[in-house]
Design brief:
The structure is a homotetramer. The first copy, chain A, is an alpha+beta fold and about 325 residues long. Chain A contains 15 helices and 9 strands. In chain A, the strands form 3 sheets. Chain A has a 5-stranded mixed β-sheet with strand order 1-2-3-4-5, with helices on one face. A two-stranded antiparallel ribbon of chain A has the order 6-7.
Chain lengths: ~325, ~325, ~325, ~325
């Protein structure tokens, strides 16, 4: 211990001074984000970044986080930040934001965020949830305010369709796991009618991987994919469907980096949290971004309350990916 | 008293039932607004409206109102309502709203509203204030976010440039008076550097009055006013300036209805509150609406703390309008 | 209506002025209490009291009341008032208060109060509840902190053992009815294990009535009752038991004033609220006050959710008192 | 850094688990207090205590503390804790507590506490302040509710007469310094009429020191002090006055331990905070405890806003004690 004490660098003492400023903690969080960008080889900056990381990870202990349901009654300043942080499916103005918080129709949307008492008014991470009849297969209808809505008490599935980290300066200090568990618990208590808790997630690295992946006989497939508007040509859509689904299943379940960890970052996040890979959805996201990044494919990760811990254990300890039999079937 | 008791109509008993519903008071306020539109001669509806008025005026006693400063940290639901109720200078989206609440530059805007504990989340009336160097002469620069801003502690004048009643169903139950007095007191305490408390107000009835007013020799004036874009022709502007200022001073100070009350509703409001007519501003509002309703003229009503009571008394008791010598000079 | 308007006395206008003072509403409530004591024949004061009553009854509409659970986390200033207003079973210091709010052992006490947004920090009426295994028969063990406590989730009965009106100035403006209904609903939602909702109530007028009531053959009974400590003499207790129970049942159910209304004020309150007279408890309250006022007897009024409306109707419309067969049996 | 990381003991990881329990942080704070008592030579427990200290000192950074004025409107649960933690002048029941919070007469008492967002409802340290006409010389009148009170706006002196640390488990993680500075600033802003900010403090170690201190010719003095009720014998009081004042001045200013640090712990606290030793008060505390610990003497430490930093520097860097000339005069 005395060794540790002696090693407490005076940098840390300096950094602590900022806590007494208003917004001092936010300042330090943003400072770490900047240092991360700048450090790049400079050992002094890298060390400073490391000290900050240690300090922040002591303050931002997951036990201190407050789960808050975000509604249209939240402060406009907080909602403005939320809209700015949305990383998955961009918000189109305040009416879109209002709808995503549950403000339209029978109130079948939910938004939950983690906040921290030392950085009030700043969301750390938030998730948007749609309450629907069954596991959602496409993002378009979920984001379209014109889609007929079910009443919350008639919904059977809670779809987590967007999860956004807000503070780059807290990278590596994880709370995503805790967020999903607590939101599932909260929804379960409010709406006992819900049977399915699942995401509708992008597969952000699929096309990048496919580009770098060369396999015999895939040239025609690539040629078709490179045509603009291929998704509106029924013949092409039909020809691409099976091979792409197979390749994608392979990408999600088999491709690894650093040994056991799956290559796709979103898959890694949900597998670490104890989800299983449940279903691939062909033409699930036909936005420009969806086509470009994942050939329009989306995936459901399923959270079954009684299997979360076992799934997490299998993946964390042995790198074993739990997947539904339909997904497994695509691998053969 | 027993007579009064016997007269308590069973309608009132019915109306009271609504209080236990959530939003019941808001329902009754809106009901009165609807009745006012519909009644039109029907004695039963008119009586119901009267009963409602009595009930509401008992509940909405000015002593119960809470003055709240509205900032960008207010609930989005409240701000959305506020933007919808703005009656004087329309808001253009959320960024405009944010600016009007004080959110840009050095924070030299303020917004205050009255709320009532029985109708939470619903503004009753609100006022928008700009902190500037001197009594403002034109609305354009006040609404333009590009105008260079002074720091609040350097401002000398607080300009009330928009006052909006939010609840048609509370018509005739007045709190505007109390609002301005309390906002002046609040600003005075926060910023002792403020010397001038004045409005920059529209003159909504001027052109309508002018149209009905026929006087010898005014035909050329009318002709000039009817040309589109007259305000961009320097010669016309010069020719119109003096006669219109004279006519407007006459309209504001001399034209009455029901005996003592001045004809212009905004003038009546501020004179009743104890303000004095301070200055006419030529080309103060060159928006389409400003030109159409008041030939581009605006007026400052000045609130001098030590004269408010005397001014109010003079107007309320004798119909005497207090005005600056420059305005009086226009009458000769 | 115009007649009514003309009759609005200038006194009322005067009274309304008080609303803008801090604590102005509390001042008016207390003023009415004072007027009630002083008026006594003076027609002017009586009229003023009447005006106040009308004004207060408009403001204190039951729809505006907020039901609040009062715990040890409530402001000390509020709790001090509560302890002062307790009218049924006096509190002995702050530790006793803490226990009654639920602060000891497994938390099997509850306290609920009505508050009003125009008079914050002032309880209007409150009820104290004990969660126990079965319908309580004696007050002593309920007030004794040493009594072994059941866990809330094992309790089967919620006993309302003290209901206190706090504002004499709101006499005749009733909310007791609404309070009990809402507390029953609240407890029902929190603890589905509760099957019985009943009071354990004093019978404050029994002995007074008995003193004025002369019937043949009652002299020995009176003689026994007048002996100090009769309740500790088993022979006397046995001799008195049956005749007193019979007389008390008669007093509660049959003695009326103003036609239909039962004589006992607490019985009238609960019968009006839709309760039924369930059980007489011999030696239910052996405190000095209990012996003096009701010969130690207490009574349970039972609230059955599905019979409240019918019971209320029977009593309010026809003066019919609903009682259990065991009580009815005592009348023969 | 990697060295530090490798040294992060798994104990710390374990300790962090407690944060997600409700009251988890309070649990850890109390655990450290217990370890401190138990450790006593056991190296494993001592190390655990050290780890806890590090963790807690990271969480309880002074920048995170919230200064709160504690009034009679605070939760009873918080006030009960406060009364329990009062270490200097014991509270005698809730009415005494209410008086100390400012609740009687013209409101010339204040109480301020530091709270921390991770341990809500738990005061860390609090100070009680009396607003009076001049620097107080005796504690009796300050604690006596019968003493005539000045109005806050007529007071010239703010006397800090009791400062209590509440959490033994946060020993060595200091916020007393920050507390006094912030309270002085707060009072200064509220009441510009205040000219003097000073404590009225006990001298807890004086008599213990005197007992161990043997000097020629002090035997008669000791003999007088050992008589019960000496403070009520005018002759003895007169004879003791001068020698004891001299000895006490010597004790406070000259006696040191660990080199520069003064021996008296309260003196050390205020000197570290930048106060100066201003005045000794003969018979300032004639309670049994006051006579026993400090022969009835009390001392004022004076906080002069423009000298706090220099005083602090002189003491911290060189061990130089700043004192008034009257105190210095006693040393000769």
């Amino acid at each position: 211990r005395e060794l540790r004490d002696a090693l407490e660098p005076s940098r840390v003492k300096l950094l602590r001074q900022f806590t007494s400023l208003s917004d001092g903690v936010k300042f330090l969080v943003d400072l770490r984000a900047d240092l991360h960008d700048l450090a790049n080889g400079d050992p002094i900056l890298r060390d400073l970044e490391g000290d900050l990381r240690e300090l922040l990870s002591s303050w931002f202990d997951v036990g201190f986080l407050e789960l808050r349901r975000i509604t249209w009654d939240a402060p406009a300043a907080l909602l403005e930040k939320l809209a700015g942080y949305e990383a998955v499916h961009e918000m189109r103005g305040w009416q879109d934001l209002k709808a995503r918080l549950g403000g339209f129709g029978p109130g079948n949307r939910r938004c939950f965020a983690f906040l921290h008492p030392l950085m009030p008014g700043e969301p750390l991470i938030f998730v948007e949830v749609a309450l629907v009849r069954e596991m959602a297969a496409a993002i378009g209808p979920l984001l379209d305010r014109a889609t007929p809505a079910v009443k919350p008490e008639d919904a059977e599935a809670a779809i987590f369709y967007s999860i956004s980290n807000c503070q780059r300066g807290l990278a590596g200090i994880s709370f995503g796991n805790a967020l999903i568990k607590r939101v599932v618990a909260e929804l379960n208590a409010e709406l006992p009618n819900l049977r399915i808790f699942a995401t509708l997630s992008p597969i952000p690295g699929f096309m990048r991987w496919l580009d770098g992946h060369t396999a015999e006989g895939e040239a025609p497939l690539r040629a078709m994919l490179s045509r603009r508007g291929w998704n509106r040509d029924p013949a092409v859509v039909e020809a691409l469907r099976e091979p792409l689904m197979r390749l994608c299943a392979h990408y999600l379940l088999e491709e690894r980096r650093n040994g056991d960890r799956v290559l796709d970052p979103v898959a890694h996040f949900h597998l670490s949290n104890g989800a299983r890979v449940e279903r691939l959805n062909w033409l699930g996201d036909i936005s420009a971004k969806g086509l470009r990044e994942s050939a329009g494919l989306m995936v459901n990760y399923l959270y079954k309350l009684d299997q979360i811990d076992a799934n997490h254990e299998a993946y964390a300890a042995e790198g074993r990916v739990i997947a539904s039999s339909s997904i497994r079937g695509l691998l053969r």
